[in-house]
Structures
1.
Amino acid sequence: QVQLVESGGGVVQPGGSLRLSCAASGFTFSSYGMHWVRQAPGKGLEWVAFIRYDGSNKYYADSVKGRFTISRDNSKNTLYLQMNSLRAEDTAVYYCAKAMGAGLRYYFDYWGQGTLVTVSS
Amino acid sequence: EIVLTQSPGTLSLSPGERATLSCRASQSVSSSYLAWYQQKPGQAPRLLIYGASSRATGIPDRFSGSGSGTDFTLTISRLEPEDFAVYYCQQYGSSPRWTFGQGTKVEIK
């Protein structure tokens, strides 16, 4: 069965950096695009970033562009999110999600359990 | 960017009742590229519906989706105790900008 397990969350000061990981299993990771989606405490869902199956294209929400970098290592079945210049408003649970669909028309068919990032001094 | 507006914000119903959730888009969602997700407290979202009306694997047939263009509906025909949760719609026709509605909470009356 598909499993996505995030790690790397924690407490970081404003302006700091953090790298999240998402370990995938139960499917051919190298064949699917992957997303990061976040949810601030008590709020709704916000799409953060997407990477194609081979890493050839990456897309970001305007709120994180230039500060976050999505990447993947298909040999390790792992997705990453490098977060720099963190702000209080980046505080959220971060989920990785598997993309399903075609031609960038992707919905999210499996989600990890999430990892909490808290940006606070 | 397509903005999705869900209504109502909260729906108070009893088990066994029918739930009708609305999702309205600020512009037409091409080819009905709309999905619905369920989220329970402390859990990750779960895919219910994609393509506006196709049920995801393992989703009970009491869940159904309909609509096209700018107006979409998620219907739960008879609420079970495990259905009380928050529901989100999401469009994926205007990529690479994936957007969600703000959510509808279905609570026990």
2.
Amino acid sequence: DQQVKQNSPSLSVQEGRISILNCDYTNSMFDYFLWYKKYPAEGPTFLISISSIKDKNEDGRFTVFLNKSAKHLSLHIVPSQPGDSAVYFCAASASEGNTPLVFGKGTRLSVIA
Amino acid sequence: DAGITQSPRHKVTETGTPVTLRCHQTENHRYMYWYRQDPGHGLRLIHYSYGVKDTDKGEVSDGYSVSRSKTEDFLLTLESATSSQTSVYFCAISEQGTGSGEKLFFGSGTQLSVL
């Protein structure tokens, strides 16, 4: 069973507009959530994270929102730039047991100039 | 950038042959992980290590073994490679484990093709 779900395999957005990437999770023990960005032929790199005690975390053009009751988080990129075109992975972990990160299947974002 | 080196970067092998992938880190981090990335599956954990000689299985551990005899090196072995193990393999490290929200640092990956 997938514990972290990214139901949109791809997303296409125009440059300058907002990109919204969504992620759902099923394990209520998850209390840390991270977003990673991956370019072709490179390893994933950390983008932004949020803990379950918060509902929003912002870093420049990137904001992550967490809705614990819905077990849903989203990554907003404003404004979107062509260099943001990449695969974005949502990941989650639980502090109990110091569990390894569980990743979603990823969403490929294409930002069109 | 975190000091993580994966070798080889690319490998082509035949079904039934043993293969070992190496991950070397210079950060002295306690935790090391092996993930594989496949289209439609995202990143899936194979095995991880929480110290020298301390390892545990991940979600897709069948057909793989690991060893960690020194802090800096984490080896992934495919005892008898199969075509289903064709994938991109990523090594990752973290200082204290990801349960506290600590992020992972990833290597550049190894593209393995099993013919």
3.
Amino acid sequence: AQSVTQLDSQVPVFEEAPVELRCNYSSSVSVYLFWYVQYPNQGLQLLLKYLSGSTLVKGINGFEAEFNKSQTSFHLRKPSVHISDTAEYFCAAQGAQKLVFGQGTRLTINP
Amino acid sequence: GAGVSQSPSNKVTEKGKDVELRCDPISGHTALYWYRQSLGQGLEFLIYFQGNSAPDKSGLPSDRFSAERTGGSVSTLTIQRTQQEDSAVYLCASNAIGGAGHEQYFGPGTRLTVT
């Protein structure tokens, strides 16, 4: 079974500042890792995913994440955020079919 | 092309009534998933369909919850004798072939409020 922990429920940052959203996972088997974003009153949209290979994964909207097997982490980063990045971000692990989600991190951008 | 659609977008029902939530996956997608998003529990998996079969229904919280899929396309999630704790946003997702490592495309959800 997998579990996912997002260490911060809310992260406030200033516009154009860098941001890191933290995610740790646990699993007894190999997993695939995902970051999804949910804008207000919308469904989930895939930002990026890690399947294998290079541990640095680049996604849409300038986001990237680094898979660290020894620390069982998959932190999401963006070097400079924009107001439009205000949303809730979900880290997820997948062993077979279903996605197992973390509790989400609400990113708020202050001007 | 068209994405995953869900109806209704909002549903308010009285405790004890039955409700049906509908999901139209992306055309040609054989795998379909239902998730529930609630304040207390976050995002939880409910059930997975491959075609019309449901090989994984481990997330259904009680026997009041059931789902079916017909023609390998539309799916209906039914909640009988609704309770206040069923209030949540019910999300549907689909992808082309199922299996691990593939993006699941999500619909906008149905917000269910049980009064």
